């Protein structure tokens, strides 16, 4: 049976693949608080392409959801180059493709373009425009070769059946390195519509604030996105501008299709179910939204210009056959090496491998012909994965896949961890999406072959049963350090309420698992993703014969905290005169406040709960120590124990001033938390974190100058209102994401610090440490020194708190070095003693998940 749709009209004779510049001043892109017109975007793209020179090139682009990456991609696509798009932030995959294809230009997110030669090293076929991986995130050298006409025709077809107009505006819920994500961009550009560019997740409150404020009319999602929406407050939201929600990237259960379709109709938007593959430049079929409730299992009809038919010779069931697609969007062919880039069209039809039937003119997929699976929208070669498992883990291993997980069946439990790591790394799925089952005997068919249908039934049964989550060694580190036995593979350090103290200890533990250093932003990555990255890192190191580096890479903030507390104690015992460490610790605290508390997902209420947890973990150990000292030694009074010393008007230094740093940190953190948890300000901070931080810094600066002017007096430099700007400077530093922003923050830091103490050496320590924190994310140290820095940094609060009662008698006896060592040891020991309480307080405030 064949069903044909009419070919949409295309703009011919234009040089760009996606003709959109003629839409002129109509909005094309909304990103980072600014709007780019179609003409403006075209100019940016042309300027970028011009920097690569006139020769046609192979351009590798990291497909991040940011303006720089998008412009680089369009510069390659629109100006005659060949774009090879890879996921951003996945160095192993990028490096594998760079090694395999030797691109002429490499465009990495956040870095200058690497133009590697004056002309191309490759013979590039004239029709070739785009190379995409068909293997998800595995780093496989097998790529899909797509032509200019493939991209243009499919973009026009999608814009046609979705009836897109310049009034439409999509928001990017999918990554741009994914074929589906690119198709959203392409179709909206050719229709003169616009795209809201964001990397936020659909579970983030700010995603929906952005969608509402920008008037987004369409949203695209894979089945996993719909699971996230179902578990969030999406159905309670009022999104009057939304008119369309599209779904592809895997089968959505018929019940879910029917439910979302009905819900959408009550809210004024249509659900459009679609079917496609990278080999078809994205879309092959779509289900008209008015048919979704009556035919929820169908993929619909061919896209405009496409043809679908069934090859019934491959299946014995009447009316069932392999789904075959033809159309102008069918790929040129595959590439496995640079030599293949010179090849032209090698296929005119796409055999999908899906078994389907056609009823009432609508196609419905009923199974798979070959051994491929699709999990989280990633297509997985199950045969290849199975072969690797048999070679490396268990010679009896078998693999099947559902829409939600890869299921591995092994003969014994000894290879469970190895199988999980191998499959997660090979397939690019989270570790929690790999289920390993011990099955002593694999079920066989009557011909003696493995019965994959029976294994599939076992996999489906396992997914519906209440099996407790698998514990992993990496997860155990999170449980141990954070005291969160409820930590799941999908949680990140920030999700679990981690603070600056636990950050240091956990980073030290995790460093052993990453031979090449911890991944950037590890504290916001899920346990499952880190587990996969660790497995890939270890596998890469093994494959290349790499040895563990002789120097350890350490977060600069960890090193600075260790140095700052050393300077504080060493100056107090009169070993060295390096004052300023406590003020530097305030800036580091502000940096970590933005990095942890303000980066936590969820709404204002979730942020408040997270922040209160951190504040309680700071206050409770401090109150216990101060209370004990007050009772036993009489050194502190009630105002110090309650952190209200500044309410007593005293300009003379006495013992009550000793804990000024902790008192100021408590009140500044509480104020910052209260400010950012007000719903209106919470949304403003989420929408533009850097400008919000600058606004708070302006307020803190006014408070400082209103109190003391340029130079602070001897005790004024230790009062909360006067020193708050150091904390907010750290906050702004954490939110500065571009070179221009970092230069601005550096300038402000210098202007506010120089002259504040009237002591150049103290100002140099504070400002120098701040600039290192801002510009140098990591430092390399010998492993032993790195571990020592981690211990000191993790105990810095407790060392500061306790050293006042430790060093005086030893210093008076003429033993400054012993005074220093004892102060550090007591602080570290106190931190270990109160650690269970520290964790319990955090759990009690944040609540069990």
List the SSEs and their pairings.
Layout lengths: L1 E3 L22 E5 L2 E4 H13 L7 E5 L4 H12 L3 E5 L4 H11 L3 E3 L6 E2 L12 E6 L9 E5 H14 L7 E3 L7 H12 L3 E3 L8 H10 L3 E4 L1 H8 L13 E4 L6 H14 L2 E8 L4 E6 L13 E2 L4 E5 L8 E7 L6 E3 L13 E11 L2 E7 L3 E4 L2 E4 H11 L5 E4 L4 E5 L5 H12 L6 E5 L13 H13 L8 H10 L17 H12 L15 H18 L7 E4 H17 L8 H17 L6 H29 L5 H4 L18 H18 L1 H9 L1 H20 L11 H16 L3 H15 L6 H16 L2 E4 L1 H12 L1 H7 L4 H6 L3 H31 L3
Parallel strand pairs: 2-11, 4-5, 4-6, 5-8, 10-11, 10-12, 12-13, 13-14, 25-26
Antiparallel strand pairs: 1-17, 2-3, 6-7, 8-9, 9-19, 14-15, 15-16, 17-18, 18-20, 20-21, 22-23, 24-25, 27-28
What are its keywords?
phosphopantetheine; alpha/beta; acyltransferase activity, transferring groups other than amino-acyl groups; phosphoprotein; Acyl-CoA synthetase (AMP-forming)/AMP-acid ligase II; GMP Synthetase, Chain A, domain 3; Rossmann fold; globular; 15% strand; 9-stranded mixed beta sheet; single chain; PP-bd_ACP; 849 residues; disordered N terminus
